[in-house]
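Researcher: Here's a chain I'd like modeled. Treat it as a single chain, no partners, no ligands.
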Amino acid sequence: MQLTDLPRGRPLRVLQITDTHLYGDGGQLAGVDTEAAWEAVVAALRGKEQRCDLLLHTGDVIHDGALDTDAAYCEARRQLQGLGLPGLVVPGNHDDAGAMERVFHTGPVRLVGHLVAADWLFITLDSTVPGATHGHLSATQLQWLDDCLGANDGRHVLVGLHHHPVPVGCRWIDRIGLDNGRDLFDVLDRHDAVRAVVWGHVHQEFDGWHGDIRLLASPSTCVQFDPASPTFRIDPRPPGYRWLELQPDGRVRTGVERLTELPAGLDVGIAGY
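Model: Modeled as a single isolated chain. Structure tokens:
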């Protein structure tokens, strides 16, 4: 378990970054230089987020078209650590979980299952299925989650993963979400400390509820998906990120920030990603 020295009794400011799709070699996604888009988001972060405590990257750190996977992850780690925050990364369907584990096994930003900070416990799950776009949580992952929640010492809990466990109302991407979301909520519903579940994958913002659990997704730092389209379509809205302010009493305040301009080269007519 990764521990931080953040004291209890104070709010935590958390940044959710997701779906950076970095190539490490100047590659483009839907016409967008993903590194340039990420750098623009980082510049915006530095200007607005002066009180942040933690970083959570919810997957698709790099794109699977990267020529040198390990080198791309090393560059991504350098850029994430440049934010000066401890945090967690989780693998997405475009990631190589093995390479991520090699690169993010040490340092302030890690691929590790849980982190304790102040009054909160952060638990991350690997929802990836090798060679597939959709997500699935194995019996091992679900049991590990149940064990972590059972051993919790009274802290509030935020769970992070890549795939969405509930439909977000975007028909084509709802077909490639987490295929056993019900199993996830069966575990979460047995533990009353869970306050929020956050994910990536959908390249759009989402804010909903499962009982008393807040359900949240964030825009990508590069290319967005049209939430109203029944088939794949690029949404011509700027990249962004989500901030969360986690209170000592378990309340969650949150919002989405976007860049003021579209990334250069965006091709809204691309047929897939």
